[in-house]
Amino acid sequence: MTFRTRLFLTSLVTAAVTLLVATVLVSWSVRAATDERIERSLVSQTRLAAETLSHRQAAAEAELDSEADTLAGLVGARVTLVATDGVVIGDSDLDGEALSSVENHGTQPEIESARQSGTGSERNGRAPPLWRSMRRPRSLIAIGSPPLKL
Questions:
Q1: Which of 7, 115, 125, 131 has the greatest number of CB atoms lying within 10 Å of its CB?
Q2: Radius of gyration of the chain (CA)
Q3: How many domains is the chain partitioned into structurally?
Q4: pTM attached to this predicted model
């Protein structure tokens, strides 16, 4: 193997490694920025939903489930309304029998955090935050982001 060939191969490998490192760094940066944008958006949507619902009179469970459906259509995400005891009282993806059979959400980390500090989120591994929860006087509101394929 000649000196020129070795020099060429060394340069080629160096360029390939540099390109790989740059791609990984840019990918990490884009993922972090996307996660942050999703989280800010979910916080804003949840605050808006909480404020909207705080101006309503006490409503029956069926009305709250309908309200979850309406809010989901407006924000483009799944909306779950959770009573302070953890019982799901409205969900944009569930109705009737399915809604009444949902397990109690009171022990979910994002709900516990929302109960204590007013807002909470849960991440599944490296995925973006899928749920934001916001406390209001009589219930908790959780708005979920559809999982993104990054």
A1: 131
A2: 23
A3: 1
A4: 0.63
Which residue segment(s) compose the domain that 131 sits in?
3-144
CA angle at residue 76 from 106 to 54, to 5 degrees?
55
Beta strand pairing call for 119-122 and 88-91: unpaired
Q: Is residue 150 part of a domain?
A: no
At 72-124, the pLDDT tens digits run: 888 777 788 887 778 888 888 888 788 888 888 888 887 777 777 777 777 65
8-state DSSP, 127: S
Check which CATH number belongs to the domain holding 30 and give it.
Answer: 3.30.450
